[in-house]
């Protein structure tokens, strides 16, 4: 009966013998004053093993065993501490599966050099690290990819919104102060959020009275109409801004945000009036 040995293919991200390590081994051998044949003899290997050692020093043996490295260093009267810095370059990297998951998660950011993309990459790493510290399971790569893509799209949308609000604010030809610009940007985002929440089919739904009472909760409030929510946002901003943003400017900004929202949501589900 012939026994079959199954050899798994090595993935490109698994350990590969670095050429620098071969050069370091050659330097250690020369420091000890040994030739390749003498080294093979001290390692108590078969005749002709010196050819394998030469290939090892040239970096042509990609997957050497730990026993081979240990015998090599022992024959050269060297220690593992002399090669550890090179090996640490590999062990300090992310695990193989985690590397693949991260590559999948950040696939939507490939080629994107914007500040938002860089920040999202850092955010993704910190989120996974926090989940590990809390003892939670890592998110699947596809879920991480969707989350990163949503956040990137949201940040780009807000960047477009901020630009539109500032253009409307600067239309009279006078550049406003920093405080006024920040207030206008906040107001534009508040209006945008109000438009999103009053879009038909949004996730903001009232809890039915019977079901809320059955679960011991207070019954949910009905969804506010768009006009009422926008009026509340305007009132809140007038209280915050005072005279910095007059009512005329607020309404101009609101109209600009509405136009931008209508352009980006054409063919949507409709409006909950």
From TrEMBL:
Region (Disordered): 131-152, 203-233
Family matches, as InterPro entries: Cro/C1-type_HTH (IPR001387), Lambda_DNA-bd_dom_sf (IPR010982)
Basic and acidic residues bias spans: 203-212
Signal sequence residues: none
Domain HTH cro/C1-type: 25-83
Feature: compositional bias, Basic residues: 213-228
A UniProt-annotated Pfam family: HTH_31
Residues spanning the membrane: none
PROSITE patterns xrefs: HTH_CROC1
Sample GO molecular function, one term: DNA binding
Protein's name according to its UniProt entry: XRE family transcriptional regulator
Organism name: candidate division WOR-3 bacterium
Taxonomic lineage: Bacteria, Bacteria division WOR-3
């Amino acid at each position: 009966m012939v026994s079959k040995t199954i050899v798994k293919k090595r993935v490109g991200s698994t350990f590969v013998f670095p050429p620098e390590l071969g050069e370091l081994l050659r330097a250690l051998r020369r420091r000890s004053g040994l030739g390749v044949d003498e080294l093979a003899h001290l390692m108590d290997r078969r005749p002709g093993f010196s050819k394998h050692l030469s290939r090892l020093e040239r970096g042509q043996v990609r997957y050497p065993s730990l026993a081979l490295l240990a015998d090599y260093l022992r024959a050269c009267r060297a220690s593992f501490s002399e090669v550890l810095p090179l090996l640490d370059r590999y062990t300090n990297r992310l695990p193989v599966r985690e590397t693949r998951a991260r590559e999948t998660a950040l696939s939507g950011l490939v080629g994107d050099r914007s500040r938002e993309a860089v920040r999202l990459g850092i955010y993704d790493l910190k989120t996974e690290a926090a989940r590990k510290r809390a003892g939670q399971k890592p998110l699947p790569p596809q879920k991480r990819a969707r989350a990163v893509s949503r956040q990137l799209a949201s940040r780009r949308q807000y960047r477009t919104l901020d630009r539109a609000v500032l253009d409307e604010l600067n239309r009279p030809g006078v550049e406003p102060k920093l405080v006024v610009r920040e207030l206008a940007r906040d107001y534009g985002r508040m209006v945008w959020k109000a438009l999103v929440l009053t879009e038909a089919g949004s996730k903001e739904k009232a809890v039915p009275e019977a079901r809320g009472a059955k679960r011991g909760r207070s019954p949910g409030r009905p969804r506010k109409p768009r006009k009422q929510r926008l009026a509340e946002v305007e009132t809140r901003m007038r209280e915050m801004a005072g005279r910095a943003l007059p009512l005329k400017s607020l309404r101009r900004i609101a109209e600009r945000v509405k136009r931008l929202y209508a352009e980006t949501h054409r063919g949507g589900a409709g409006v909950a009036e």
